[in-house]
Structures are given as C-alpha cells and as structure tokens.
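Recap from last week: sequence in, structure out.
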Amino acid sequence: MIQRLSKSLTFNIQSIENTVHLLDDGATIPFIARYRKEATNNLDEVQISAIRDAYNLIKELDKRRDFIIESIDSHGFLTDEIKNKLIDCNSISEIEDIYLPFKPQRNTKATIARKKGLEPLAKIIMAQNNSEIRNIAERFVGKDKADNVDDAIDGAGYIVAEWINENVVVRKKLRLIFQSHAFMKSKKISTAKDEQETYKNYYQREESISKATSHKILAVLRGEKEGILRVSFQPEKKIALDFLERYFIKPDSKTRELMSKFIDDSYKRLLSSSLENELRNELKEKADKKAIEVFGKNLEQLLMLPPLPNKRILAIDPGFRSGCKLVCLDENGNLLHNETIYPHPPQKETAYAMKKISSLVQQFKTEAIAIGNGTAGRETEDFIKRIRFNSDVIAMMVNENGASVYSASNIARQEFPEYDITVRGAVSIGRRLADPLAELVKIDPKSIGVGQYQHDVDQKALKQSLDDVVISCVNRVGVDINTASKELLQYVSGLSSSIAENIVNYRKENGNFNNRQELMHVPRLGAKAFEQAAGFIKIRNAKNPLDDTSVHPEAYSMVAKMAKNSGVSISEIIRNNELLDKLNIEEYVNNKFGDFTIKDIIAELKKPNRDPRKKVANFEFSKIARSINDLEIGMKLPGIITNITGFGAFVDLGIHQDGLIHISQLSDSFVSDPQDIVHLNQYVEVEVIKLEILQKRINLKLLK
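Predicted structure tokens:
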C-alpha cells in the first residue's frame, strides 16, 4: 500500500508511511500537521489531506478489485492469468474493462443470437478468410435457429459487435481518443423554455474538451438536467471508426464489408455510449473537484474574516415596513435586550429611533454597531451615521447571507426558544461581527452563498472538503473552551458532536474549566480525544499560563525545562524574547521532540495565543449609487468581493445586486484562476463596463 502511494505522491516514503499510520490510529489532520511534524517531516495540512485522499482511493480500488475477482471466481471463470491482470490494474476503468465479458448480462441482442447457435458463424466472419458467408449462414437457419440467412448474419454481427466492445486493448485506445479528441457540443432543445436565457451561451456551442472549463461543463450538464440543452461529449466518428477498422480488418480480409458494418454497429450502439458516459463522469469529476476547490477557498476566506472580539455590540436587522430589529449583546455574544424601531418609511419615526439607539448604546455600554446588508441596509447605515454618540462607537455593515437559515434552524431554536426568528437573525448578525468563524459554523456552508454550482457537484466529496476547511480554520484559530458553542466545539480536533455537547453540559453544571486536564472529567472524552484536542483548546486566565497557548500538554515539561535553565518561572519566560532567543534548540531535542516541534514551542512562547486572522477594517459604499438604476457605463465604484468562481468574481456595490468581474476583466494579462487576483471580502474599486438593467446584470472591470 505504501509503495503504491509513493508512486502517485512526491513525498518521502517514510513521511507517507508515518502519516498513514497516524491516520489509521485516529489522528486528525490538524493534529498531525501541528504536533507530529517529526513523523511527517513537516508536511502541511494540504499535503496530509492528499495522502489521506490517495490512500482512500487505493482502498476503494482494492475493494472493487476484490469484489470482481470473487464474482468471476464464483462463476468458474477465474484463471491465474485473469487474476494477475486484475492485480496489475491501477485504475477502475482498467479493472472494469477486464470484468466486462464476465459481467452478468441481461438479454442483449448478442445473447439472443448465441441462444440461436450463431456464435460459430460469428467466429467465421471474425476470422475473415472465407468469402462465402451467405452460403455458410444457411446452415444456421431453421427451427430454434435464425429465421433466414439475413437474420443469421445479423445475429452473428451482434456477437462480433460485442467482442469488439469487450476488447480491452481497443477500449483503452478508444478511451485515449475520446480524452484527446472529443468535443463538448450543446444545443438548445427547440421546445424548451429558458425565460431568463440562463443558458444562452450554450444554445449552439461546440468546443474541444481540452478548452472546456469546469464551470462550462457544470453549466451545460445543469442545462441538460433541466431539459433545456442537448449535450454530447464525443470525438468525430470518423477518427474512432478509422482506428477500429485498422485494428480489426485484416489487409486480405474476405469479409471486409461485413466487418465494417459490424464495427460501425459496435461503435454506434455499444462503444460510443459507454465511453462517452465514462468521459462524462471523468469530466464531471474533474469539474466537481475544481468547483469544490473554489468553494473551499471561498469558505476558508469567509471563516477567517477578521473578528471584533470582546466588544459589546448592538446589532440591527434592517427593514422598511417591518422595522429594524435591534438586539444588544454583551462581550461574549449573550443577548441582553431586543426591540424594534421604525426609522424608515412608511412609519418614519426617525427622531424616536435615534433617541432609542442613543439610549441603548449608553445603557448597555455598546462599543460597536453591526448592520445587516440586506433590505434597507444602506438606509440604516446612513441613519446610524447621523447619530452623535457620547462615546466612541464604530458602525459596520455585515454580510447577512445565511442569517435567515440560521434563525429558522433547530440550533437557533435551542439557543433562543423564547424568541422569534427576527430576534435570532439580528443576534446572528451581531455575532458575525464579533467572531465570524464561531457564528458561521452554525450554518450549512452551502447556504452561505460563496459557492459555484455547489448543488450540482458530488455531495459526499463536497461535504468532505468543506468539513476539512471548517476543521482547519477552527483549529488554526483555537477555541475558548469556556465560551465556545457546541457547534464550534464539534470541529475541534478529536471531538465529536456528542462530546461537544457533553462539554457544554459539564460547563453548565460545574462552571468554567480551570485547566486543560479538567477535560478528562467530561463523559466520553478519553485519553485519545484529549491528546487530539488539548492543544487547540484555550483557557483564559488559567493558573498554568500554557493552558492559554497552543503548546500541547505533552510538551509542558519541555517548557518547564526551558524556564528552569533560563532561571525564571514558566510565566516569566512567556513573551520574554530575549531569553527565548538565547535557548539552544539542540539542547532540547530528544526522541519525542525534534527541531520542528522545539522551534514551534519557542515561536508560540514569543507570541502566545496569537490570532491568525487580520484586524477589522471599515468600508464605505458609494453615496450616489443606491440601486442598479443609478449606475452608468464608465462609473467607478468601491465594492466588496462576495463570491469567487472559476469564471470571475462577484462584487457587492451596496445596491442589493452584485456585479460580475469576468475573469477577462480582472487583469490586463492572462488570468487562469481568479483566486490568484482577488480574495473574498477584499475591498476593491471597479468600473461599470456593461449594464442590462431588466436582466439585473452588471459587468465590471477591476481597477484596484
């Protein structure tokens, strides 16, 4: 297994072997990447994930191979030669090609012909050394045989066509022809209705699959699924038939005309559809992989948005007729107060609303105001900026995508059973400003609005990828065990949903955790889970200051040794860069900890509990653009990148309709991946280059 993995991966074979052993032992990717660097030779999370995925693929291949060997053997057809051929296969398609003649068959044209006794005639035609086929075919006509000569020849042809289809060498060569010469062709079905002209670009399109990008493939497949497009992925028929005739028809063939006919039938009826389906699946798999990768990168950037921690926040879910829902939150995100104001038409109780906001800010010592960016968001932001507060209060727009999903969820109902969805939605907006990661983990990533065809891709692969992203982000930032929700805790390395719930229940019954070791008192949290989780869990103001760092408890004795050798206590060596710089790394290397770990420990002691996320920066939309009707060609506007796809980036202009920067407008030079140019939540300046107001389409060019 390790040897096979090393052939498909470029990593050191010892690194691969150690990583596989750690994974098999239940270690998580974040734990391996951070705390087992000596074993992996400092592989990062992406590299460890690649080993895991390749390992799982090999296990799936072996499982299918074992099934096929057992299946062939159970029917009495397994020979050493067939078994060895199957063992030598390195892909599912190779295995399936060998299995094809042995598959339990339904009642095909070839099986019907065999029942009529036409296989000997098929062998004579295939041998191509007798031109008197019609005379020979007469022997196969009669009761329980063919009805006539033509029926006999046609039946034999079906058997020949099946042999051609089952030829392993031929399928392998044709597969390469499909992969290198196929075209993606799409055409609008004449009777289909596409009222929004969503698939207009694909009504009559043909391009080589080598140029068909992932988003184009997913687009045409969706159009086909919706009954709007007819789609094919095939090479020119002549290329395939020329190869088949060269391969099967002998130079001195005496049945050339029949062989050519049966080759054409085999390709048209069996080979082309089978290989096209294979190619479709392959292209879909690659397109899915790219779309999932884009989604994963977007999600990571969204989860790692800058927090505004330890602030008292007043959050507003804006609205016109229904009013603006207000909630006041303490520094830990707990709900203190809620009510509704009506500063906008039709009620327009602006003066009262201003007075109420000022009063609440003063009463609850509010330090920041979070304003949802949905309906009435810009108007509410303007309203807030007209209020003069007695203290420094920052006001920020917050992307509320998915807030309504959270507010109607079981999680929200469990958190706030006595409040309606409007209060829950406002709380979510406020908490997103305080800590985007902690709040967004409560929402299904597919509902956050940062994907590309996420509902069309392989859902199992998508879930695996997005789970990997969330787990990576949560463990990179670390979790405050005394304030974290069950939803956040379940993503900590080594913890499950049930253990996370047990932690929250333990906290309710016993109060705050005082040290990491206390985790061992939580039901079902054993030594293995503790090993995996402890380094990612932080405890503020703990008696042992190392409990509020990413130093793993297994290394506490090492830090104690460093402090003792430096003549200070553990608390005194933390942040003491002068002493830490004097440490001789080699002095602390032993059988358990190598250079990588010792350097990590020293780096953490220099800057303990550092948050990898950036600082919050404020942003203002254009004051003159309030709706799509205010836009003009050539207008330059500030915006925020809200979503990145394979074909470009979407930009929030503050007008409730995102614009698109097509990939061709991201730079004056060629761009292969929009992620190379822009990132989620980036503040940009754009120029309007095209407007379709009725279709609500805005085309933009990136300026800076």
